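Re: that chain you flagged

S.,

Sorry for the slow reply, it's been a week of failed gels. I finally had a moment to sit down with the sequence you sent. For the record, here it is as I used it:
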Amino acid sequence: MSATSALHLAAEIGGPPQYDARHYVELARLAERGALDFVTLGDSFARPGLDALAVLSRVAPATRRIGLVPTVTTTHTEPFHVSSAVATLDWVSRGRAGWNAGVSTTEAEARLFGRRSAAPAAELWREAGETADVSARLWDSWEDGAEIRDVATGRFIDRDKLHHVDFEGATFTVRGPAIVPRPPQGHPVTVIDGTGGPSQEAVARHADVVLVRATAPEQAAGIRADVRRRAAAYGRHPDSLRVLLALTVDLGDAETAPEPGLESGPPLAAGGSYYRGGPVDLAELIARWHRAGAVDGFHLTPITPERDLERIVNGTVALLQHRSLFRTFYPGGTLREHLGLARPANRYALAEGRA
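Prediction finished late last night. Pasting the structure tokens below so you have them in one place:
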């Protein structure tokens, strides 16, 4: 990665459960004012609160450019429903959707559904990878232009442009086609946490954005190189991935220096890297790691979203923009355009020579 490559920034807007959509709308709008690539909203079956994907579907019409990426748990859920819900978010946001694929590992979560027991993480991540695979196939099952809507002839769909996916996985089969037309982005952006071994194959095969954790630029650069190598082994171009450092930030004391090299930050539940300090020092850290080619950008999780996101946008991001290290406006309208990722060709149109 060259020192002049684009810097990508994203932020988590979750925290203690909130039941007023205005809370999330205001945080997303704040991040949008800073021209961040996307916001994420975490979710799991182990915590109370609103459904992240539904919340961001409410946020979508209240924002204009910022990408919207909810966590979607692939365990105990139907892949066809996952695909339809994420495609719907892409439609209502006009091409700004992504999804952060997650798994559910505990027996307590399994009991909420009563369909099966908890399974090992490796097995769950294989299922998550299959969900990502069949979702992409379902998004392609409607070719662009499949909708005709010709009132005079009564033709709504060109059936030659609809396709059965006929997918058979280890835990499910899906015939298709989808019930939602192909999303504006072709495929909404797939985000996967690349920390730890079980998710590595899913990352290499399906991720557009990979979240990683490291305590030094050299370590991050090694992880990034490994992710790109694994993706290339599956026939993917390494430049089709964006590797972001996942960093939990506490900007509560602007006068406190950051932990040197992040090595001495307190342990976090998610095993993530931790930064405590001021917005200016955070900007310096981001600039230094990016110039070193360690990562393509940063995914920042504020300890206190209302306080720290404001300091990230009006402090850290503003300084990076002032130094011409981060954009001041969105160059396009879709999340893929923000990330510099191409819109995928439709596999079925390619097979039939229509792409």
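What I noticed first: The CA atoms of residues 212 and 318 lie 25 Å apart.

Talk soon,
D.
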